Amino acid sequence: MNQKTNIEQLIARHLNGESTSSDRETFKIWLESSEENRKLFYQTKDTWDASVKEKDNSKDALLHFYKRQASQNSSFGKTLYLWKTIAGVAAVIAVVFFSAFLFNMFTRGEEVTGSKTELVSFKVPMGSRSQVNLPDGTNVILNSGSELKYQGVFTNKNREVSLSGEAFFMVKSDKEHPFIVKTSDLNVEVTGTQFNICSYADDSFSKVSLLEGKVRIQLEQGEPAVGIVPGQQLYLNKEERKYSVSESDVDIESSWKEGEFRFKEIAFPELIKRLERWYDVRLTYTAPQLKEMLYSGNFRNQESIWQVLDALKLTTPIDYEKTGFRKFEIRYKAK
Amino acid sequence: MTDFDQIFQKYYHSLFLYGKKFINNENDVCDILQEIFMVVWENRKYKLEDVHLKSYLFNSVRNSCLNYHRHRAVVNKYKEYEVFNELNFYESGEKSLIEKEDLNNIYEAISLLKEDYKEVIELSRFEGLKNKEIAEKLNIPLRTVETRLFRALSALKKMLTQRQIFILVNMIFESD
After folding, report:
1. What domain range includes position A119?
2. Fewest Cβ atoms closer than 10 Å to its Cβ: which of A111, A164, A265, A275?
3. Mind telling me how many Å the CA of A210 is from chain B's nearest CA?
4. What parts of chain A have a pLDDT lower than 70?
5. A295 to chain B, closest Cα gap in Å
6. A323 close to A299: Cβ distance less than 8 angstroms
7. Which domain CATH number covers A109?
8. Which of A238, A253, A268 marks a domain boundary?
9. For residue B64, how far is the Cα from the chain centroid?
10. What pLDDT does residue B92 have?
11. Residue B94: its chain A contacts at CB < 8 A?
12. Is the pLDDT of residue B47 over 70?
């Protein structure tokens, strides 16, 4: 038998039980024979230890802690001086309110009261955002590079729009007449609710995140619709046509509508796409190392693209160069 | 919730799993954590900045576990060797994945493993089955289970150590 396989099996046996005493003897000799072997084993054991899933009993433990604390305190006669400090320091976060001027009403197409065949379209260029009030009282905020369309007959009774890009919907409640958003990959049907849809043609995914109410998402014709509840997100992988529903931070997902650019552990390629739309620039990169990196952050859009790139430069081994009008090239710089 | 409660809930579970790396007995790990949080409470360590607090907590667990083994005269020689070796190994610079990663990241990485690998990890680590039981359940040879388990751990280790997360939180810029 090949030596390496033997050791792999020995380690697995050692970690998950039932090694014989001769196994242990062999294992011990192997372990002690080199620093490298020890490193391999301890790293593997560390991964083994970290991947255990057990019930998180921290709530019970906290209660238990206080009980024991209380019994000990009474016997020693200590005072609970801590209560004085519990009020403690609170971090004050300045919240920047973005006034409506950020959202310039941007309409293309003729009068909203068009004829039956007329297509009404609201198109937001890269680098800006816009707000649309539909005739039924529904309010839609459109993110950069997005387009919202409907046939000229949008009324209180026929509420159907199509979207390409990202939008946050605050749908006027009307149980009789569902509001339908169509995108190239999925349809969302709601009655009265607040939710975010992100479905750009050049992204490999579409996402629907729900803040309030209820939505039904139709992925394939004839298939049953998928429902999600507030705080959840449906993520559709467009290529594989596979979807998953998970808990998500809807505030972060829809932070763009407040003029903030917040993101949590997104991959470099996605960050770049979002920056391109947000700032209306072209960013190019070729280094494969960049694709591995994940970013979290919080920008407020007052920063220029230069400042954002400088911030990236502080945390990532990159350099950038302006290569043309609103064009930048990002290069990986080995440490 | 008070600062203390928040800190407690944020770290307790990770510290518990971390302590169990060194000590097999759950009650003893709980006792160690109780003592550590008592110090945190009494010396108001929870006012520390999060990153310092985190390394303080994990270091305390590690040191307490070391002391635990030192003070236990009736400890099996072989195990003692193993534990000390492990402590020395981590002292020498490598940090445990439990310390470095959010547990959610670890579970997410497991979910991304290929099916064969994910299966053996889930059965052994989530459901607590021994290798032999996994072999019976999946109707495959024991050796295959062992090889898969080792390779699954290697793949997981690779995923977790290659990932780099850069945080650009709340950058403050001077206005032009």
Report:
1. 102-253
2. A111
3. 22
4. 1-5, 69-118, 300-303, 334-335
5. 5
6. no
7. 2.60.120.1440
8. A253
9. 15
10. 61
11. 42-43, 46
12. yes
